[in-house]
Design goal:
mainly alpha; 69% helix; 0% strand; globular
């Protein structure tokens, strides 16, 4: 059992990691970028989501790529900033959780941004951003798995669902236990956010990549 004094020392850092992660994660880049790009409110297009897949429905690939980059980097930066800034020290075993907390809350910030009445994206790019920061080989594996599934099925949602499902198990095999635990929790939330996509996949009405509907 971890000493209570270690908890009292770590709690302010944990709170700071959570706050920073949430604030950075909650920046609605999809909404901002499409407005600046002259596309109006992305919430009035396609599925109404602020994420990369819906931005693609504008037909503007440059805006889509920029949204993907920004939604990924905001999570990566959240983790890296906390890993660099929070000086708990190696003597406190809770220190290893600070970057994970930042990444987890960046993910939650993207899904539930306070600025948009907690109605955000579905988290795939931000999920990837956390992976890049905490275990980059798995991030590359995630991309490869997503692309492979997308090429075969042409369903963005199915690619995200299957790849996220495999991610915690692969991390566990490579002894990344703490990261596997975080990604398992994030996978569960990601699947919950995709409940409408799952229903459409099951009844055959899900939109394929490239369709604007």
């Amino acid at each position: 059992m971890i000493d209570t004094t270690l908890w009292s020392t770590a709690l302010p850092y944990m709170a700071a990691a959570a706050l920073l992660g949430y604030v950075l994660g909650s920046i609605p880049f999809g909404l901002i970028i499409t407005r600046l790009g002259g596309q109006g409110d992305i919430r009035n297009i396609g599925s109404g989501n602020i994420g990369t897949t819906n931005v693609l429905r504008t037909g503007k690939k440059s805006l889509t790529a920029l949204t993907l980059l920004c939604d990924t980097l905001k999570a990566t930066l959240s983790v890296l900033i906390i890993a660099e800034w929070a000086p708990l020290g190696a003597s406190n075993p809770l220190a290893i959780y600070l970057p994970l907390i930042a990444g987890g809350f960046a993910f939650l910030g993207h899904l539930y941004p306070i600025w948009l009445k907690f109605n955000g994206g579905k988290g795939v790019a931000t999920y990837l951003g956390v992976l890049f920061a905490v275990y980059w080989p798995m991030a590359l594996g995630f991309i490869a798995l997503w692309i492979s599934t997308a090429l075969i099925t042409r369903f963005s949602s199915l690619s995200a669902l299957l790849t996220s499902l495999l991610t915690p198990f692969i991390l566990w095999v490579f002894n990344q236990y703490e990261t596997a635990g975080l990604m398992a929790l994030m996978t569960l939330i990601l699947w919950m956010k995709h409940h409408e996509n799952i229903a459409r996949l099951m009844n055959g009405t899900e939109s394929k990549i490239g369709n604007k509907g």
